[in-house]
Amino acid sequence: MADTDEHEPRGEHQPKKAAASGWIGSALEYYDFFIYATAASLVFPQVFFPSENPTVAIIASLATYGVGYVARPIGALALGHWGDTHGRKNVLLLCMILMGVATMAVGLLPTYQQVGVLAPALLVILRLIQGFAVAGEISGASTMILEHAPFGRRGFFSSFTLQGVQAGQILAAGVFLPIAAFMPASSFSAWGWRIPFLLSFVVVIAGYVIRREVEETPAFAEEGGHDEIPKAPVVEAFKSSWRDMLRVVCMSLMNVIPVVATIFGAAYAVQPAYGIGFTADVYLWIPVLGNILAVLVIPFVGNLSDRIGRRPPIIVGALSSGLLSFAYLYAISIHHVSLAIVVSLLMWGLLYQGYNATFPSFYPELFPTRTRVSAMAVSQNVGTTITALLPATFAAAAPPGSTSIPLTVGTLTLGITILAALAAVSARETYRIHLGDLGRPGAVPVPKREYDRLRTQPRAHGRGDVSSGAS
Fold first, then answer.
1. What is the DSSP secondary structure assignment for residue 468, as one 8-state letter?
2. Distance, CA of 65 to CA of 266 (rounded, Å)
3. Fold of 14-216+237-455
4. Dihedral sign computed on CA atoms, order 442, 448, 454, 456
5. Which pTM value belongs to this model?
6. Among 388, 256, 379, which Cα is nearest to 317's?
């Protein structure tokens, strides 16, 4: 036990409260982010980008989805710096407020018919603010939960960050479902799509109240107490951890799977130019059901990563979900709703979660406390920015009228997931390394037998701490 105390930060740990805050905050913030994604596929081509050429309108609308990701590396630099110098809690509150205000503003925008090119220009600006704000969410929330979690349970507790993200996507699609199903198409295009954006007012209030309740992490507090907070954490991260940052960039390319499932897949299935003919309300059930399964699977995978390590779930999840992208796009191409739902459940709801449930613990574990938020935020957001530009690329490579859309897009998807798997293979395993030793290439992991004993025992962290248990 003395060895554990020596390598774990001292102070009050709040793993359950931190996990709950991360879950709820991520769900609310990603609700904001993904209602935009849904609208970009379903209505924005007609509302903000009218064109005689429907292909141009689709590509332009999907490109604005990608614009939000272009802002993410910039947001990662600024918010990562803030999280490593001012604390994990403060950066999460800032992210929440910026995201909520930008999302509400989208719901108030005039259309192209009302103000011309000013409408898409304002839309792009607000999407940039959204991208800037969300850049600090997963890295900040994952770091906060990780640094509160007990040794041997970091994968389980950190997975709740992504469970919250998936729940936010369910909420986003769930808000659109009744509107698309019961509102006349003309009313939905005219004003109904604005309702989910305006509901972000509730997101801002609720998220702020929830996140105020969690204390700063003992690891960050300990850094501050020793005057070890870096003045330029981003610069230090590039100098000391650039190899692991590059690995995270490559692994983050796994974001191609939700891009195929929810963004390009939606446009391919719903937009009249492709001629598939899925109705919006039917197609919206595909990501809803996939995310419901994901919410159930994620904590089990997070717990599994505490038992067998971080790399195996990521590698298996990457390769298997990449292969299934062919079947998913084929099911859409033949207008087979049931098959598309089943394959989506397997590809996205189950197999992709091997990666999705594991990276919230694996990424921050690759970096030391003093640069953890910055290193993860910058590298993860660079990777997701690359993949977020893919919907427009897919639409250009496989435009309406193409005869081999599933093969073309599926091949690109599989190639990207193979690269992500190779990056995971090259990374060092982290699950048996104490929090105080993370980020050190030569850190010695706890022997497996001792690790298994420690992770199943309720224990206090440091001196005078509140026991967090090992539930």
1. -
2. 13
3. Growth Hormone; Chain: A; (1.20.1250)
4. positive
5. 0.85
6. 256
